Amino acid sequence: RSPWRILAPPVQDLDYLPPDDVVDQDLQCCVCLGWPEDPVVLGCPGGHMLCRRCVTGQLCPLDRQPFARLSAPQAVRGCQWTGPRSNLQEHRAMCPHAEHECAHCGLRLRPSDRGFAEHVLSDCADAPVAEAPPDPRSASAVVRSSAEAGTARREVIGRVIEAYEQAERLNVCFVVDCTGSMSRHIDAVKTQIRWIVHELRARLPSMQLHLAFVGYRDHCDACRVEVLPFTRSVDEFRDFVAGMRATGGGGDGPEDVHGALEKACELDWSINDAATRVIVHVADFPAHGTRYNDCPRDSYPGGDPRGLDLEVLVRQLRDLSVQYVFGHITDHTQKMTRVLNEALGDYIEDKDMMDVELVAEVVTASLQSSVASTVSTLTSSPGAEVLPPVVLSDAAPDWESIDAEEIVLQEVRRVADISSLRAGSDASLTRQVDQRIATVSIADLPFAQGESRVARHALRGDGSAAVAKHFKRRPEDGEEDHDGDAGLPFASTLDAHLTLSEVSAVAGFLAEAFNATREGGESIHFLASATAHGPNVVPCNLEDALPAGEFGGSRTTSGGGSRTQPRLLMEFTRFTHEATGGHLMVVDLQGV
């Protein structure tokens, strides 16, 4: 083993004295949140400053945009290397101009210096001195603990970035009904594919895209199915689609969907080791067979004349990890996707593509969502248990038959001033809790679910409608449970719900501050979320129910921007970052 070690500033081992024991928020590394070690300012749009060791990969870890190449810090000594920052540490280890220090005697030399090789080959007389472990109460131990936390944070960020880079290897197959009624939508795919690719590249900077096309008609047509295998060439894809003709279809409504999906299954979905695989199916009529359509005329009411099973084909695509997006042009196709989703557990994502002008935007948003779904899958905990299915009920609760339960209600107070949300402030200021005893009735079954929680109708003791949200959990052995009422330790789930109440209170305060900066017009409001628990009530978040009526949904994400995201919400997200001095940002907004 070589006695040489590369010299690097041991910033993480220094003992910082007041007032420098608190990192200046204008100087802290954006990843490890500590004093920057060998700081670099990235050439990304945000101009973020990071420790050199915190820079990994080809993209800025914060805004995920590419940044400039750099030259080595030892260029003044004759090194001519330039390259991505992610390769700097590897280069340092091999560069003949980088300064090294003997781990035994402290001698400093460069590999290009005379005597370097001789010293490596000789046995250094000075043996390393073992250092006593640091006092855990000392400042150095605190700093070292902070450095370890920073290392863990970098590892998490690194895993997420790696997941994004895997997810952005994207294989997309367009399956399009090419009968006579589909000419406008075929033209839309042809003319809008460049815009789709341009938007995807802007939103997914690491994207490696392969495109395929399956055009289909009906059994009576001479050219029943036409296929373009996966290609990286957008021009080749566009030229192929331009050659498609909207003809045929026979005298009935249904088309050869079976044959189209048979060809889709035969594509090489593993090309480029793509982690995100998507079918975008656009059609105005369903498959043959009365199981899938209510059309008055169907030449093959018993199903595919060649004996293909549509459910088996779709299941095969699911087994290939292909995400399925169906663009409805008419209501005729609704039954087909409904029946398949009933059989396969809501596998197909339904989209309205009736308006040809919106095809590009719907496709782009769907593909970006598919990438996000892949990232979620890749970053989920390995070996995580699969939760049991949740039984939902749309029925209005019969409150006369549901007992009111006594609960402890904990309401998190909003902070008094925005300075409480900046770096260096007392963290306890955001969790000031008012506690009282109350009563609530909660429906037996949830009416909705998300990835980690379910929502139940609730009725407070004063008669006001509410919604109770709690985590899904696996039932313990011997218990029967359909909505996840058992499993997690009480303390951990209670704290998790308190954290959600804290987040809601902070977001609500920032929304009020944001609204105060605007003169009239639209504003943003957050529902107050209290934490409730009792002898017969699992810990949950209790929120006011929305009034009856029709609402339009909206959502922002922490990933790339989308033209479909409301401008007001994007302005609010930016405001939260600026108002708190970069200490926090409210993202992933979902609401009505």
From the structure above, extract its key features:
single chain; 592 residues; alpha+beta; six-stranded mixed sheet; six-stranded antiparallel barrel; 11 helices; 28% helix
Describe this structure in words.
This protein has 592 residues and is α+β, with helices and mostly antiparallel strands. It is 28% helix and 20% strand. The chain has helices spanning 88-94, 116-121, 139-167, 183-203, 234-242, 257-266, 310-319, 334-344, 359-379, 490-516, 567-579, and strands at 4-6, 39-41, 49-51, 70-71, 82-83, 100-102, 108-109, 169-177, 208-216, 225-231, 276-283, 322-328, 348-352, 405-412, 433-442, 448-449, 453-460, 465-471, 529-534, 537-544, 554-555, 590-591. The strands form six sheets. A six-stranded mixed sheet has the order 10-9-8-11-12-13, with helices on both faces. It has a six-stranded antiparallel beta barrel with strand order 14-15-17-18-20-19. It has a three-stranded antiparallel sheet with strand order 1-6-7, with no helix packed on it. A hairpin with an 8-residue loop joins strand 9 (208-216) and strand 10. Helix 3 packs across helix 9, helix 4 (183-203) crosses helix 9 (359-379) and helix 6 runs parallel beside helix 7 (310-319). It is flat, with a radius of gyration of 30 Å.
